[in-house]
Amino acid sequence: HDADPLAQRATVETLVGLGARRVELVDTLIAAAVGCGLPVEQPTATMIMVCGAATTQIAVLSLGSIVTAVRIPVGGNAIDEAIIQHLRQHHELLLPSQSVRPLQLALHGNGLQLTGPALTEIHGRDVATGLARSVQVDTAAVRQAIHTPLTAVLDGVGKVLRDCPPDLVADLADRGIMMVGGSAL
Fold first, then answer.
1. Biological process GO annotation list (predicted)?
2. 105 in a domain, yes or no?
3. Residue 111 maps to which CATH number?
C-alpha cells in the first residue's frame, strides 16, 4: 500500500491481464510479518520493524491487522552517511558508500554492542592524496556518530509502544521486535 492509488490500480490491472483471478494488495508491514512467520492472526501482539534504505516502518500487529504504526524518514542510508561523514571529518578518510555495509558488519561484531575490541581497522582513501590508507577507528566514536539516526528510530519504537494498548505491550515484552529489511543489522 506504499504506492499511490494510480500505481496500485495499474498493478492490479496488469496482474489480472496476465491471468490472475484475484489480486489483493497487502500492507508492507503485514506482508513482512507473514513472510517472517510471525503469528499475525493471533490475538496477541507482534511487533515488526521494516528497516529500509530511506525509511523505517514500525508496527504492532494483532488479529491480522495493524494496531498502531509509524514511518520514520530515517533508514540505512542515514546511518551509512553518518559513518562516512565521521570518517571524513575525524580521520580524513574517504570511504565509498559500497564499503559501509562490510564496515557495519565488522563493527557489529567488534563493538557496536558494548563488548568487543575498542578499535577496528578501516581501509579507505586519504582525503588529501587519494591514496589507499588504513586507520584504526574507535568503535565508541562510531557508535556516537550514528547516535542521531538511531535515536530517531528508537523514538519511533517508543511512539508505537505509547500508542499501543497496555495488554498488547505486555505481549511484546515476551516476544520482542522482529527486524527485517536491508538495513536490519
1. cell morphogenesis; regulation of cell shape
2. yes
3. 3.90.640.10
